[in-house]
């Protein structure tokens, strides 16, 4: 066989089946091998994903979506994306802002339109009465009252700034900005928020609260030598009513006095009334607790609020005061609170205070 020669005259020893470095006319054995390989891949594609030429044409005419990926053979297919169910159209509809609400009965609560006020169970939860779920149970049991009416409706919207809410008959204070604290005033301290003479005063004890922007009122006064319970609040109406004698909020005192007190005689005199320089005064209750060593420990309950009223009453019956401590204002008790300390009032105490002055 004659070996073909190259252009330079050297023999060309390449095999016939080798693919030429440059493109030829398509009649070489390399071209035939390429066409055979193409037919083999087409038949394999037909066995896997289509039937014959038609599916190959469809596959080439319509490109697959970029979001769909064909899993390789022998590997797990990816999990399909979870389809989020669309909510029904009715759930997107909101009630009209102004509803045709029937007026509440006398003393009842006016329902607020959707979007105004707060739900009753949320108000109770914020006031520390119970969790929302427990508050819903209390409402269902008929234990919650709004503006004088028992409420059993879940989700009732109220105005926390105006509504009067009671649980089991006790008023619940739901206004977040209100402050009610009990102070055990030490002996020698002034019942003022500041003192021009630099003497220690109540304002020194609550200086941090005042610096934070709280404006506190003290309920009544105690003279410098008298110890015990002093209420502080930023509710001016409450402070005024607690001090006003027309609401007859009781104050309880323990007094150590000179001399041994005759319980029956002195008690009768104080209950009937004693004439003082600014008018008659009397106590609601009187009791001798201890006698000994020329002194007596007595307990007095009265709703008077005049200056030095307890000291003047006991002086008038011949038993000057040695030591005086106020232990109660209405339902709030001093207890074992240490001198100079503050205690935030509990929900029941606050509710009973407001109830005592008809707020």
UniProtKB/TrEMBL annotation:
<keyword id="KW-0694">RNA-binding</keyword>
<feature type="compositionally biased region" description="Basic and acidic residues">
    <location>
        <begin position="1"/>
        <end position="12"/>
    </location>
</feature>
<feature type="compositionally biased region" description="Polar residues">
    <location>
        <begin position="57"/>
        <end position="68"/>
    </location>
</feature>
<dbReference type="InterPro" id="IPR002942">
    <property type="entry name" value="S4_RNA-bd"/>
</dbReference>
<keyword id="KW-0413">Isomerase</keyword>
<protein>
    <recommendedName>
        <fullName>Pseudouridine synthase</fullName>
        <ecNumber>5.4.99.-</ecNumber>
    </recommendedName>
</protein>
<dbReference type="InterPro" id="IPR020103">
    <property type="entry name" value="PsdUridine_synth_cat_dom_sf"/>
</dbReference>
<dbReference type="InterPro" id="IPR050343">
    <property type="entry name" value="RsuA_PseudoU_synthase"/>
</dbReference>
<dbReference type="Pfam" id="PF00849">
    <property type="entry name" value="PseudoU_synth_2"/>
</dbReference>
<dbReference type="Pfam" id="PF01479">
    <property type="entry name" value="S4"/>
</dbReference>
<comment type="similarity">
    <text>Belongs to the pseudouridine synthase RsuA family.</text>
</comment>
<feature type="domain" description="RNA-binding S4">
    <location>
        <begin position="118"/>
        <end position="179"/>
    </location>
</feature>
<dbReference type="InterPro" id="IPR006145">
    <property type="entry name" value="PsdUridine_synth_RsuA/RluA"/>
</dbReference>
<feature type="region of interest" description="Disordered">
    <location>
        <begin position="1"/>
        <end position="116"/>
    </location>
</feature>
<dbReference type="InterPro" id="IPR000748">
    <property type="entry name" value="PsdUridine_synth_RsuA/RluB/E/F"/>
</dbReference>
<dbReference type="InterPro" id="IPR036986">
    <property type="entry name" value="S4_RNA-bd_sf"/>
</dbReference>
<dbReference type="InterPro" id="IPR018496">
    <property type="entry name" value="PsdUridine_synth_RsuA/RluB_CS"/>
</dbReference>
